[in-house]
Amino acid sequence: MTTRTLAVVSAGLSTPSSTRLLADRLADAAVAALAERGAEVRTETIELREHARDLADHLVTGFPNAGLRPVLDTVAGAAGLIAVTPIFSASYSGLFKTFVDVLDRDALYGTPVLLGATAGTARHQLALDHAMRPLFAYLHAAVTPTAVFAASEDWGAGGASHELGERIIRAGGELAGLVAARPASSTADPFADVPDFTTLLSR
């Protein structure tokens, strides 16, 4: 059985952060739902704050450096993506948008994506629908019907409220369904059968 990878992208700016907490909860729910379907999966968590300078370098040079290239490859090659951002000024954070801006145009084409967002109050939850969904629709990703928003009051005594917990489980199940239905990508080298230049010259 092929082990699939779930890429988990967190744009939280602090350590610890509620954004990372939500990302971890969503990942746990998706992994559990995939396990129920008999699918083997591993998660790769990416903290964007650790790559802020790498992302800025990419913007001005047009090329990913050695620190950022593996991150972009992980996201592009993942069977599914969980993307969580804090909400600033009624939209995703600048760090999150910068990361999306440097992705290859077709990196998420058809990829199942679960969206999450955090903010201080529930007044910002509409940002999921008016900002994040259009962004990933533009990238031709397959976004789950359920997105998850968590305000500060949703984290009672370090745990998720009952309503938030149920939404996390539902969203994780939806992502698992999309990932399980998608054919596993081949890891074979597409250029393995291409002869090298010396061989071509000798013919």
Automatic annotation (TrEMBL):
It comes from the Bacteria. Keywords: Flavoprotein, FMN, Oxidoreductase. InterPro entries: CE1759_FMN_reduct, Flavoprotein-like_sf, FMN_Rdtase-like_dom, NAD(P)H-dep_FMN_reductase. Residues 6-155 form the NADPH-dependent FMN reductase-like domain. SUPFAM superfamilies: Flavoproteins (SSF52218). The keyword S-adenosyl-L-methionine does not apply. GO terms for molecular function: oxidoreductase activity. The keyword Transcription regulation does not apply. PANTHER family: FMN REDUCTASE (NADPH) (PTHR43408). This is MsuE subfamily FMN reductase. It comes from Actinomycetospora cinnamomea.
